[in-house]
């Protein structure tokens, strides 16, 4: 019984734990930073949110900043006007799964459906998706298979400030961003799914931080501008 348990654990590690940590922590084809350049990328996960994504777009438009939105495909069906606005205002749209399920707990058939259905939804909105970010950055071996099959670029990050958490005040988010952003940073923030109106605090923080980053000489770019 003990041997069987060990085998199961080893299989599970090979299936999802090792791929996740390997792509997060080692040099791979996954994009985690933009190199030694003044370019930085604001990226947003977990939307589209019916309230806060539009408010975030207002702040970005205020400063003429372009960002990359990794959206949950099912929210696209409910928010076509927001998608049109993102495109019109020059933002890049990437995929953040079908319904934000954890790849560590999903098998072959779900993973296949996740990608297939998501890509179809995006195409129905006129989107040719090129960029993918898995929920929580978690991957299994089939995640990697379908990223390759659909010719997607895996985009991770090197700055995350916990903006979705209850205790993350706008001031705390501001301080973490200013302290940690440097040349080539890919910043992962969230415009959906946070607790206690978390996206509201993120938006408030950005309204303060963006002018400071502009003053420091950083150039805001999207994944499309960098990778085509």
Number of strands: 8
**Annotated CATH architecture:** Alpha-Beta Barrel
Our measurement of the CA-to-CA distance between the termini, rounded to an integer number of angstroms, reads 52 Å
Structural class: alpha/beta
CA radius of gyration is 18 Å
Q: How much helicity do the residues have?
A: 40-55%
Strand content: 5-15%
Overview of this structure, please?
This is Polysaccharide deacetylase family protein. The chain crosses the membrane at residues 6-23. By secondary structure, the protein is α/β, with parallel strands linked by helices. The protein has one domain (2-227): Glycoside hydrolase/deacetylase (TIM Barrel, Alpha-Beta Barrel), CATH 3.20.20. It has helices at residues 2-25, 52-62, 73-78, 80-88, 108-124, 141-149, 170-180, 198-215, 223-227; strands at residues 39-45, 68-71, 92-95, 131-132, 153-154, 159-160, 186-190, 219-220. Strands 1, 2, 3, 6, 7 and 8 form a 6-stranded parallel β-sheet that branches. The mean pLDDT is 95.
Quick take:
This protein has 228 residues and is α/β, with parallel strands linked by helices. It has one domain: TIM Barrel, CATH 3.20.20.370. It is built from 9 helices and 8 strands.
